[in-house]
Amino acid sequence: LTAREAVVAAGEPVERLYDRLQGSDSGGGNEELVAAAISRSERIVTAIIHNEFPNHVILSEGWRLRNGQSDREGGGGGARDRDDAGTGAEQNPEEIGGPYTWVIDPIDGTGNFAHGNPSFTIALALVDGTDPVVGVVYSPVTDELFHAAKGQDAYRNGTPIEPTDRDTLAESMLLSGYDPTGEFLKLFYRQARGVRRLGSVSLHLCYVAAGSADAHWEYDTYFWDVAAGLCILREAGGRATDSRGNEYQLRLDDTGVRAPLLASNGPLHGAVLEGLPDDGFERE
User: Fold this and answer.
1) What secondary structure does DSSP assign to 47-95, as a single string?
2) What are the pLDDT digits (tens) for 184-208?
């Protein structure tokens, strides 16, 4: 409940900033408003979680809070480009992963936010070692709240969700995240009913979990991108692996590590894996 309260509380000022940004004349969006939204979301979620669980570690994009002390660089959140979002700093796994670590993505879909697209979320996960055991994803504009806890199913606005049972590409809708050369789109667009890109990894995972899509591919991910959605997907009954079919593992010990992700309803997983190139996709 605390996790849900935290993201909803953060959603209120974030949505107000989003409304202000929509009314601006800056064309591509106001970077100061984007940075303010990230910062306020981080601070609200961190304050609520730290107050309730003072002995837990809290991680966000490139900083860590442990025993009330932050190692944040630069003093605040800001809009980050995908290619420089990680610090690359290796951390002590015993400090970060044990026993419990909260992982925040204060705004997942900053590009959408900056351009007036409502497909952005606030995502929060509780990780036990490398296993996400609580996941909450909140879309402030649409007021969609996805949540799950290990062994307790997954929900959207209090209603249980589950993936589809489709097992053939010809009848399936796929989602794609970061696809630098467009190869995933080229490979699967004609085989499936369509390939869509929403610009928010956490929403992609939640929509697969809820049966709004059948599979999602991401060329590479950071752990804060996917921790919450991964918990929701798995508890709904979906599956997540890397590009070789190995179970997807969160790596909290190195903020610079990226990993490919294939998420699906389960029955379709093999068909998508089989269609991926053996040597992986190349970066442009």
Assistant:
1) HHHHHH-TTSEEEETTEEEETTEE--STTS-----GGG-----B--HHH
2) 988 999 999 999 999 999 999 999 9
pLDDT at 219 over 70: yes
Give the orientation angle of helix 31-52 with respect to helix 2-22, to 10 degrees.
170
pLDDT in tens, 18-58: 999 876 665 544 888 999 999 999 999 999 999 999 999 99
pTM, rounded to two decimals = 0.86
User: Could you give the CA distance from residue 179 to residue 185 in angstroms, rounded to a whole number?
Assistant: 8
φ, ψ for residue 235, nearest 5 deg: -70, -25
Q: Read out DSSP for 124-154? A: EEEEETTEEEEEEEEETTTTEEEEEETTS-E
Integer Cα distance of 134 and 64 in angstroms: 19
Whole-angstrom Cα distance, residue 107 to residue 254?
21
Contact present, 196 and 175 (Cβ < 8 Å): yes
The backbone region for 186, taken as left when phi is positive above 0, alpha when psi lies in -120 to 50, beta otherwise, is alpha
Nearest to 61 by CA among 74, 48, 51, 50: 74
Structural domains in the chain plus CATH codes: 2-160 (3.30.540.10), 169-275 (3.40.190.80)
